[in-house]
């Protein structure tokens, strides 16, 4: 059986959007053309891939089974075209968690990972959607469950986290703090905690009862808000270069030291050649700079590190 890549691509995009109109728009074709391609594919396979009805569009059991290999088929076709087109496009990489400056980590490996085209995702959900749609090839940021099916990730850096607080805070003169000492202070967050998994988990783990949220207008503005109130504190990775903010103090956290986990994230089956190069560069830099040191007796992670597959094997 020979599959038509255009038909398979139409199926994949519709399965991701679960809306024929939106899927057609992303492919720059008419909805009628999209429907015809999917209907021909279903005829060829001899089975329905979608439920169509008044409640919208949904995948059949066969459609769910077909989705993962269909994504791989489209990715392989794109890689084949790139291999003979005379010019390979750059690896498209996105980041999120901008307050914690993810570009610092990516900059350490970019020179050894081939040509990169960089984006600026809003958050983990927007980046995972872009990966599943094939709009980007890889992403860097903090990964936390649940992740959509079809994505894989590799831990590349564990970064110690410091407390930042007002110089007028009662604990500001301490050389180091245990996280539990902050339980009576107010955790200042650059958005709602249900969208900031690391800060949410920290507050739950160490009994921080008081939280308040701000609007993320960048690190200088956020830290100025922290410095303005002697009851506030927040968390920033230790290697982030802090702007000059009057009245702000940064204090290391110990016993345990919270670690912020940076991971490389990609779509399973993405065979783009530059992806393995980026993963290799990240692994080499992690070994050189000892980025993955973790001792459960002295460090704290919301999720302990696990063994993650390489992009070329997923």
Global mean pLDDT: 88
Shape: elongated
In helices, the fraction of residues equals 25-40%
Unreliable spans are none
Structural class: alpha/beta
N-to-C span: 25 Å
Number of strands: 12
Q: Could you state the order of secondary-structure elements as H and E? A: HHHEEHEHEHEEEHEHEEEHE
Quaternary structure state of the chains depicted: single chain
Task: Describe the fold and architecture.
Strands 3, 4, 5, 6, 7, 8, 9, 10, 11 and 12 form a 10-stranded mixed sheet that branches. A two-stranded antiparallel sheet has the order 1-2. It contains 9 helices and 12 strands. The model has no long low-confidence stretch (mean pLDDT 88). The longest helix has 24 residues, at 61-84. The protein has helices spanning 5-17, 20-27, 31-45, 61-84, 103-107, 124-133, 197-205, 219-227, 273-289; strands at residues 50-53, 56-59, 91-95, 116-118, 138-141, 151-166, 186-189, 210-213, 232-237, 248-252, 257-267, 299-300. The chain is of the alpha/beta class.
